[in-house]
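I hope you will forgive my troubling you with a question about protein structure. I set the record out below, with my sincere thanks for your time.
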Amino acid sequence: TIRYSIFAGAALALMIFGILLFSYLRSLQLFKEILSSTTKVDRLSYQATHDTLTNLLNRRGFENRLHNVHELAALEKQEYAILYMDLDGFKEVNDQYSHETGDQLLVAVSQLFQNCLREHDCLARLGGDEFTLIVPTFKDKDELHTLAKRLINALKNPIPVEDKMLSVGVSIGVAIYRIDGFTPKKLMIAADSAMYHAKKSGK
């Protein structure tokens, strides 16, 4: 009877251990699946709002960020600015070399632009050679002028791409909330118009 009790107890303990082990392994597998699903969702969300070439915000990501900045500025009755930028001479690079060379140039340009910005400034690539920049806060127009000059000067020297030295410039249009428009759409139109005026006036 004692042997049977010991055997039964051992068998019960072994069964409980097996159940716990199975439960642990199953929980671990579920946890891994959840992590994998979360990672996939995060990756898809990132891809939906970022440019695959430069890793900057794409048009959708830019519009989302602009909406958030606009809502905060309207609530606090503050100004913010949009800079609309179009590269000068980029089409000639694509025509003379290749789209692959042009893509590498866009990556280099985006990095040069980012080096000019503050942490809270938001740079995006809308497509092609068009970039936009949201400046959520600034002291005065002189600060925006200085920022625009930094961006222009960032492309002052030829840019090394593979074994080539490529030259492009940038035309910039600026629009300020509460001065040039009261909605994101009106501001984008104003900034785009100012950019084309700059391009026609000598870039």
Observations:
- The first helix runs from residue 2 to 49.
- The mean pLDDT is 89.
- The two ends are 100 Å apart (CA to CA).
- The chain is about 60% helix and 15% strand.
